[in-house]
Amino acid sequence: MKLDSKIPSGPIAQSWDKYRFDMKLINPANKRKFKILVVGTGLAGGAAAATFGELGYNVETFTYNDSPRRAHSIAAQGGINAAKNYQNDGDSIWRLFYDTVKGGDYRAREANVYRLAQVSANIIDQCVAQGVPFAREYGGTLANRSFGGAQVSRTFYARGQTGQQLLLGAYSALNRQIAAGKVKSHTRKEMLDVVLVDGYARGIVTRDLVTGKIESHVGDAVVLATGGYGNVFFLSTNAQACNVTATYRAYKKGALFANPCFTQIHPTCIPVSGDHQSKLTLMSESLRNDGRIWVPKNKGDNRAPQDIPEQDRDYYLERKYPSFGNLSPRDISSRAAKQVCDEGRGVGSTGYGVYLDFADAIGRLGKHAIEERYGNLFEMYERITGEDPYTTPMRIYPASHYTMGGLWVDYNLMSNVPGLHVIGEANFSDHGANRLGASALMQGLADGYFVIPYTIGHFFANNPVDKSVTTSHPEFQKAEQEAKEKINLLLSINGKRTPTSFHKELGTLIWDKVGMARNEAGLKEAIARIPQIREEFWANLNVTGEPDSLNMALEKALRVADFLEFAEVMAWDALERDESCGGHFREEHQTPDGEAVRNDEKFAHVAAWEYTGVGTKPNRHKEELTFENVPLSVRSYK
Amino acid sequence: MKLTLNIWRQKDKNSKGQFENYNLNEVSPDMSFLEMLDVLNEDLLHKGDEPVAFDHDCREGICGACSMTINGRPHGPEKQTTTCQLHMRKFNDGETITIEPFRAKPFPVIRDLIVDRTSFDRIQQAGGFVSVNTGSSPDSNAVPIAKVAADKAFDAAACIGCGACVAACPNGAAMLFTSAKIGQFALLPQGQPERKERVIAMVKQMDSEGFGACTNHYECEAACPKGISVEFIAMMNRDFMKASFSR
Ligand code: FES
Question: Which of A43, A175, A235, A236 to mutate to test the interface with B (most CBs of B within 10 A)?
Fold first, then answer.
């Protein structure tokens, strides 16, 4: 299969402008003749649906939540990057582009990243116009901070709730279009399948989570904005309902899944406290601006943190990465934490934790200043752990947080299936092997507000749609039938184990073998083990209740069933990518002091996987990456 | 810890509901309230029963999905804390805990602890936005906004739309929710052009959804997990009066 990325030729700084000029347009009066189905109403989906509506398209949105406002974008704390250079500290589109390509460890497409950096400034303008209450200086201008290892202050924020404010902005724009009748919003409806007619994505099949009704929806294009698959690890910072079903179903219908092994493990989360744990809570990375990370120098040092004198502490990030120290990028910080815990120097009851200590900052700036900066985070920490971080250092540990992999898309954000577009975290495009802090919100909104609204018109202009297709087309009937059969099957197994117990078993395996550090033997073990768990799932699952009512166990079972297949693709990708890069760390490929070693000669490409059947190894396709503007170099933060 | 749970069970919108008793014997004080319910639900599944349905998603106090009344208080006993952030160490060994859905006429029960809060969406759709199309905005620093105004607007915008204010109000009023959105825009220059139309449209929608009137009990503020102040209600009332007279 030849993957055509459709990257425009010519100098990168002009390529998006030129591409937009070359695109065919749809006459304003004709836009209403097209219907777009948008699945997922987070930042990417909400922004896209609202903008489509403003342009005159007919839109239907789908979310499994009771309201579009609850999508998990809402939980992003830190901020959103934009190359505004308001701080006059040397930022520019070029620098944001450069940082993102380098931060992604040279596994992202240059052209996409450049475009992202370009439109980043428009996003802030748009959000401010919507009434998003960003933090401001006394003079009334917007405030910025430096975030996640960036050496310029380009992050815009709204206290520790930036994701919430941006999502509510997109939600308000969406509401305006719902009120105007341009968008029809379906809530508590989960997509179970995508429907292809003559090779084109023409609709979806959903389950109404209240009535259990299986329904078909037809459109002229489908946009998936369904987020990432971080919950494959069972424990993650994702919301409980986040799942891989939409993108995995598309994969089973022929869309390629790109770089599924690129997952981000966030360094600053509250550690696991026991078996009952259902999720992990992120503590904003901004804490690393003032907190110092350490563990005891010696194994088995069980003294209370306050009783461990300076000379017996190891501030390992400051020691290993003197220039970035506690602000080293996420993948590097996470791995370093794992390393010290594996050495037996971890803290807390499980031994899987490191200290994040504010004593110095409090001494230097006073308790009040720290309270002003992080008060709400400290409170949240105390609520969850029962410990007071003003007097006892916080304990943190890495957790699954974001997935850089996703469905393969071209420069238009369309997958290899015509008509099937993928935006936000659900696609693979912009972050390479590691995402920088405050870049997820930027990408979701860039895709939704400023990219897909243009490129979808180009698609319509070039692809005459067969208007005779309705939901009574046999392809829709077939997909509905399959969904119903699957549900009946799940309800009739009558085994002994709950969907959650399988999810936990799978998640533990993936965390151990396909988590922060991977090796050949472990990956092969995972590939052997996953089909066994899957088999037991289909033989020994217990789901009570009926198909045609609100049934939480059934919802969960449907999601876990897809994770159980998807996890294998992830493990294959990690095995075949025989190098270390960004969040993908293969133990076989490291320097003597434990740094990742890339293999650009063999792996400077996107791996895009093609479905070949459940349990059989998928086909691996390559999109070669070229770096003409950011020369390949070793990513060093020493 | 050992606990007795007294939980509202209701099959669907049209069925009559009732309280059922459940015993849990091994609750860890480190569990969140929803994790405690997870344990109960796993037990129920093992016994072949149906789990207790409840809304939840982020489990970090921001999405506003979780919505239950615990011992008579929306989101339970701890101040400014959503149910998902409430931990079992706040309860005592041997305690009986009563759990029911958020109660209000405009929030019909869908199943067990899940209620229908789409009326909130409709209030927002009536005018909770600034009419600006993508791409038509000026540079974001073109209009300076005083820090105090921006901060205050943020205080209002922090609302998570959970509905605790309605459940806490003896009249089932949605004044705190509605006024928070109106207040956010009223405090910002971006919200001025549509200020009058907005307050009138949103208040009208709120009334038509069947929410009650405010008689100054201020239970809403006490129950709000984000500490939204009732001063936004006063602000909305003033705005509403002004807008009505000048029409
Ligand atoms: S589950 Fe999101 S606020 Fe409680």
Answer: A175
pLDDT band at A594 (very low <50, low <70, confident <90, very high): confident
The answer to whether residue B138 sits within a structural domain is no
Q: Which CATH number characterizes residue B74's domain?
A: 3.10.20.30
Q: What separation in angstroms does the CA of B197 have from each of A127, A170, B182?
A: 21, 21, 11
Q: For residue B137, is it within any domain?
A: no
Task: Give the CA dihedral B37, B40, B44, B50, nearest 10 degrees.
Answer: -10
Q: Does domain A12-265+402-462 have CATH number 3.40.50.1220?
A: no
Q: Flag whether pLDDT at B92 surpasses 90.
A: yes
Interface pTM (ipTM) of the complex? 0.98
Total domains, chain B: 2
Closest by CA to B117, choosing from A188, A618, A360, is A188
Residue A40 CA to residue A424 CA, distance in Å, equals 10
Pair (B102, B183) in one structural domain: no
| Chain B contact set for A545 (CB, 8 A) | 50
CA distance A610 to A613: 9
Give pLDDT tens digits for A86-95: 999 999 999 9
Contacts of A551 in chain B (CB under 8 A): 50
Per-residue three-class SS string for B52-86: CCCCCCCCCCCCCCCCEEECCEECCCCCCCCHHHC
Confidence of residue A146 (pLDDT cuts 50, 70, 90): confident
Q: A317: CA distance to ligand 1 center in Å?
A: 34
B residues 161-200 closer than 8 Å to A (CB): 161, 184-185, 188, 190-191
Chain A and chain B share a number of CB contacts under 8 A equal to 223
pLDDT band at A139 (very low <50, low <70, confident <90, very high): very high
Q: Is A383 a catalytic residue?
A: no
Tell me the CA–centroid distance for residue A63 and ligand 1, in Å.
16
Tell me yes or no: is domain A474-599 CATH 1.10.150.120.
no
Query: Which residue in A115, A154, A288, A330 is the catalytic one?
Result: A330
**Domain match, B107 and B161 both:** no
Q: Is residue B60 part of a domain?
A: yes
The pTM of the full predicted model, rounded to 2 decimals, is 0.97
State the pLDDT at residue A636. Answer: 75
Does some domain include residue B42?
yes
CATH class for the domain made up of A266-400: alpha beta
Q: Do B50 and A553 touch (CB under 8 A)?
A: yes
